[in-house]
Amino acid sequence: MTVAALESRTLASQSAIAGRRDLSAFMRQLCARTGADAYVLLDATPGVGPYDPPILASNWTYDAIQSTGVDTIRHIGESSVSVYVGTEPHGWHPLALAVLLGREEIANLVEFGHEEIVALRLHIAGKRYHLLLSSARTGALDCTAIFIEHMRCGYALAQFAGLISPDGDSPLSERERECLSWVSQGKTTEEIAVILDVSSNTINSYIAHAIHKLAASNRAMAVASAIRRNLI
Fold first, then answer.
1. How many Å apart are CA 99 and CA 171, to the nearest integer?
2. pTM
3. Which CATH fold topology does 16-160 show?
4. DSSP the chain
5. Which fold is adopted by the domain 174-228?
């Protein structure tokens, strides 16, 4: 898919993600935009807390999680079927995951209505997340929409983790901070444009203003300056 095709799609505006309630609301909206019936989002960062890994947001029932097991969810998230941002996702029936899962694990997924599954990975400033989207009907998941939402989910998690937040003492606007934060994570102008739902020219303008305000000569120097000053 071309960047132009991505930019031509209309994306709903994204509200601030300040806590788990906001994150769950975002995930419900993501499901509505992608045709998913269910989602489960894990923080897979090693040593994050008493739960390994914790479930940050999910609409799976308690029985579904208990029967399927967090280890199964994590196994899928860490497998070759799970894709990174910028890679086209693919829907999988649980039976197609037989090389990864046992018969009981596959049966549990099917029993609880996960007929088609897309597995996504997100790495945000040293933290690792796994997101599984699923549908009770094969072919219902819109992988083109998921490709876009994967990027937006990274933005939501960056907000949730406190990596993007307003700062009244900052010489940068919130948008300029956001753009530099994404640049620091290796995102291209085109990818940031999709995440923020604006044109590539607008992103370049934000970054140019940030470079000027920080008295830097290029993007790398602006990012380094912003990190030193705790602006991103």
1. 53
2. 0.70
3. Beta-Lactamase (3.30.450)
4. --HHHHHHS---------SHHHHHHHHHHHHHHHT-SEEEEEE--TT-SSSSS-EEEE-S-HHHHHHH-HHHHHHHHTSTT-B-TTS----B-GGGGTTTS-HHHHHHHHHTT-SEEEEEEEEETTEEEEEEEEESSTT-S-HHHHHHHHHHHHHHHHHHTTSS---TT-SS-HHHHHHHHHHHTT--HHHHHHHHTS-HHHHHHHHHHHHHHTT-SSHHHHHHHHHHTT--
5. Arc Repressor Mutant, subunit A (1.10.10)
- Whole-number Å distance between alpha carbons of 98 and 106: 7
What are the sequence ranges of the domains in the chain?
A: 16-160, 174-228
Q: Do the domains spanning 16-160 and 174-228 agree at the CATH topology level?
A: no
CA separation for the pair 82, 137 (Å, rounded) = 20
The pLDDT of residue 56 is 92
Look at 167 and 206; give whichever has higher pLDDT: 206
The pLDDT score that the predictor gives to residue 15 is 64
**Which residue(s) pair with 175 in the sheet?**
none
